[in-house]
Amino acid sequence: MIVEPSHSYQLLRQVHSITDLNPSQRIRWHLVKVRSAIATNNLGHIEAELAALIQLQEQAYFKRHLASMVSAMGIALRRLGYLAEAKTLYTCALALKLSDKKRMALLINLAVLSRHMNDYTLARESYQSARNIAQRLHHERALANVNNNLGTLALDEGKINLAEAYYRDALIGYQSSDKRSGNITAGTNLLLVFAIQGHTLNFQRLISPISALVDAYPDTSKKALLLWLVSANDANLGKTLPQSTRENLLSAFKQLESEKLQQLVAQYLAPKVKLEIAQKQRPARVKKALPDWFKARSFCIDPVTYAYPPEKS
């Protein structure tokens, strides 16, 4: 699933009944479906899987693997726009007794969430703690993940060259661990930097392998970003974009993965293709009702504050 989430997603969709599975098998089934939906950004049916998991929360397997359940639910909540609730789950999970690998993954998730909540201090603290663990474990894929996300923090701050350095390191790390989704993420991020910089030669060297990966991946948001990247590079080359492409770009903008990515595209790429992007304000968070499956949980109810361990000398 780590290497081929898109393949897992397609296979899982072909199975319509799991009545013969025991409770622990059903939990693993729903958890894999949640993870593959997240990895491929196919969120249309994810809440049904989360609700099914919650119905199994009293099972021994669920309780033994609570950190894994909470981690997946936290990512889903962030993708669905429930940021404060995701943070509640992450801080709860980090207070549990965890393996280094699980703590590292949760810290990375918390850091990603903190960026979306504009808490850059917590994001950096979380990434640094995760990086320390990854270096101690010699975990190349996690280091690539951290580098990719540190690149995004740098890009948010307008530090384009620093972002490029982080993204290059991330792409190398993902390639060595053979993680396709990571290759796509770091690759498109690096292409974004090249488009911003106007480095058309670097862009042309990278676009072919990344485009092939994106074309084979069932994620419309990545395909939407690729259209923006190619169009911005064409503009850097002095090409005039036809009206049909400009209209497609406006449609693709709405399909981008997150509000943060939309902000970066509107800031850096839209001027290159001579498009004005009117970003709508998201409705006030208080108007969005909590999902029933989240309210039905029996874990992580009370607020918890996670304290970072002191750095080892």
- Estimated structural class: mainly alpha
Order of helices and strands: HHHHHHHHHHHHHHHH
State mean pLDDT (0 to 100 scale): 88
Biggest sheet character: none
| Unreliable stretches | none
Number of strands: 0
Q: Radius of gyration, Cα only, in angstroms? A: 20 Å
- Measured distance between first and last alpha carbons: 36 Å
**Helix proportion of residues, in percent?**
55-70%
**CA-based shape:** globular
Strand content: under 5%
Number of helical regions: 16
Quick structural gist:
With 313 residues, the protein is mainly α. It is built from 16 helices and no strands.
Could you characterize the architecture of this molecule?
The chain has 313 residues and is mainly alpha-helical. The chain is built from 16 helices and no strands. Helix 2 packs parallel to helix 5 (66-80) and helix 5 packs parallel to helix 7. The longest helix has 18 residues, at 120-137. The mean pLDDT is 88.
Chain-wise SSE layout:
Elements: H1 5-12, H2 23-39, H3 46-54, H4 60-64, H5 66-80, H6 83-94, H7 100-116, H8 120-137, H9 140-156, H10 160-177, H11 180-197, H12 200-215, H13 220-236, H14 243-253, H15 259-269, H16 292-295
Helix pairs in contact: 1-2, 2-3, 2-5, 5-6, 5-7, 6-7, 7-8, 7-9, 8-9, 9-10, 9-11, 10-11, 11-12, 11-13, 12-13, 13-14
